[in-house]
Amino acid sequence: MVAMATQDALSAEVVALFGRITDRYIREYEAAAAQHGLTPQQAKALLALDEALPMRRVAERVGAEPSNITGIVDRLQARGLVERQADPSDRRIKLIATTDAGKSVATELRSHLRFASDPLAALTEPQRRTLRDLLYLMTES
Fold it and tell me: Which of 31, 39, 79, 123 ranks highest by number of CB atoms within 10 Å?
């Protein structure tokens, strides 16, 4: 990708809008996590567990160092939201899985994260597809 020497007005406006969206999303995410007594990282880890995963995969999904995930998982486990399970294919590996309580909290968290989905309701399906395709294009470069 070629860097622009100077940013044109349209690009500057798009960047500013991304900043506003990001700030609003972070505030809403932090508020939703706090309602459940979770840190944002704990909430991210809980939401990343749509299936039992090794610690390394949880770290990848959360965007954290594997060494930091141990403490996050420890705190979630102490609250009864996740459990460690032996991997049936390799008993040396521990999988992290949500408990029923964890699944319930994850469902509630998702229901409080409306900012990401509510504005999309104003777009038609073709507009949402175009936006998705453009975002993929931006993130794959």
Answer: 79
